[in-house]
Amino acid sequence: MKAGVIAVQGDVAEHAAAVRNAAAAHDESAEVVEIREAGIVSDCDVLLVPGGESTTISRLIHREGIAAEIGDHVASGKPVLATCAGLIVCSTDAKDDRVDALGLVDVSVDRNAFGRQKDSFEAKIPVTGLDDPFHAVFIRAPLIDDVGAGVETLATVDGRPVAVRDGPVVATAFHPELTDDPRIHDLAFFPEREVVA
């Protein structure tokens, strides 16, 4: 499996490790490529749009010609995992004129809605498709405040969606790559397959 990590800014190495661990759980290997320019996305089986600073990520993927390629990847049915700032960038409405949202996940998002860096928190949350709760790390996390009709809510905190699936895209308000648990990456990229014991 060839996994591309949008690497213009954000948690690149952590996502690379997590997708390798998820692939290994299925007795597969993942070749991870860091994407900083156009012409690479089309060769990837799966994509990761990491956390970081959403306005910077948005500006750079459009400037480098990567944005349209991400849209083509999703249109072809290939999976994407978008986390934190990645969720904002992939949303239909980022509620911020500085973010040229890709419109890949039919949600509207409030940036930093859970608060500033000092308001970061961790919580064990039930996630649809996982047998046990996931230890989620929220850092300056966005809030999903409106979910489109075709979007499945996978997890909530205090009744507010924090993980969703829209077609081949799984998007989270938290940072699954900052734990040793690859199950969110597994859910995004191997949803129909049994984990090899």
From TrEMBL:
GO biological process terms on file: L-glutamine catabolic process; pyridoxal phosphate biosynthetic process; pyridoxine metabolic process
Annotated pathway: Cofactor biosynthesis; pyridoxal 5'-phosphate biosynthesis
Keyword tags: Glutamine amidotransferase, Hydrolase, Lyase, Pyridoxal phosphate
Pfam hit, one: SNO
GO molecular function: glutaminase activity; pyridoxal 5'-phosphate synthase (glutamine hydrolysing) activity
InterPro entries: Class_I_gatase-like (IPR029062), PdxT/SNO (IPR002161), PdxT/SNO_CS (IPR021196)
Binding locations of L-glutamine: 52-54, 111, 139-140
Assembly and interaction partners: In the presence of PdxS, forms a dodecamer of heterodimers. Only shows activity in the heterodimer.
Function according to Swiss-Prot or TrEMBL: Catalyzes the hydrolysis of glutamine to glutamate and ammonia as part of the biosynthesis of pyridoxal 5'-phosphate. The resulting ammonia molecule is channeled to the active site of PdxS.
Name listed for the protein in its UniProt record: Pyridoxal 5'-phosphate synthase subunit PdxT
Species annotation: Halorubrum trapanicum
